[in-house]
Amino acid sequence: MGTNQFWLIKNYVIYLLKSKSRYHIHSPFVFDLVENVFKNKTITGDLKKIDAFKKSMAKSKTIIETIDFGAGAHQKVYTTSFQKVGNIVKNRSQRNAQAHLLHRLARNFKPENVLEFGTAAGFSTAYIKSAIPESRMVSMEGCTNLANVARQTLKQLHIQNVEIRIGNFDVLLPLILKEFDTLDFVFFDGNHREKPTLDYFNQCVEHANENSLFIFDDIHWSQGMDKAWKAIKNDKRVNLTIDLFWLGLVFFRKGAPKQDFIIRY
Ligand SMILES: C[S@@+](CC[C@H](N)C(=O)[O-])C[C@H]1O[C@@H](n2cnc3c(N)ncnc32)[C@H](O)[C@@H]1O
Description:
There is one protein chain. By secondary structure, the chain is of the alpha/beta class. It has a single domain, classed as Rossmann fold (3-Layer(aba) Sandwich). Helices cover 43% and strands 22% of the residues. It has helices at residues 5-18, 28-38, 45-57, 85-92, 96-109, 123-129, 144-156, 169-177, 194-205, 223-234; strands spanning 63-68, 79-84, 113-117, 136-141, 162-166, 183-188, 208-217, 240-243, 247-251, 259-262. S-adenosylmethionine (SAM) binds next to α6, β4 and α8.
């Protein structure tokens, strides 16, 4: 899944120049988030366990056939390939720093209804769900063989009650949304292209409440994702956005002024 490295580096340099430390944040909500969630990098037992299992899975030489409906399929409807599970874990899973942040965000906001786009080998699912064992979590994945790997990952980690739904997001999403009155936490980590990202956002936002948190992966990965992030930031229904470069956080808090922060994570 190639991206324009020059584009990414240029964007990263801009991010470094624009990003603020917590001393320049004039929003008590965001300041607390930075202090208590972004900067609190304690590695709990849960995180250690998942990190260690991920490290061992990254060595797996088992080969599976994968089907890709997302940005990896380029202009085609889907592509298939044979890949080592270890390479999928290394290349597709969130890096530990981001995955730990997902865990801490879930622990902090305690969402009851969680939806994830892109299960892959199940690691971001594990990091999120381990923080909120009582919550409902649905995770969508287009590749059946990968969904089976994810089921094994969750079983090995004794993480229960995750509903993995197999199919193309385009087909699954409208059906799944019928099951949710409200969505408290949505992690968008699949099909990193402008139009699908905005389509998925527009469908999910109908189920947002004032405490919802939507998290977008790879918001500067490509020109298309950059444009999608800008459109989401400018959307009238959104009132607070936080750009952490690899992840973009979107809040819908009522009564607060519209604000956008670029924060060094
Ligand atoms: C980056 S990976 C997800 C990684 C996972 N969230 C983690 O951090 O462990 C994206 C996944 O989304 C799936 N995907 C992409 N586009 C899709 C689509 N349109 N429908 C269903 N699955 C899709 C891919 O098969 C891939 O496994």
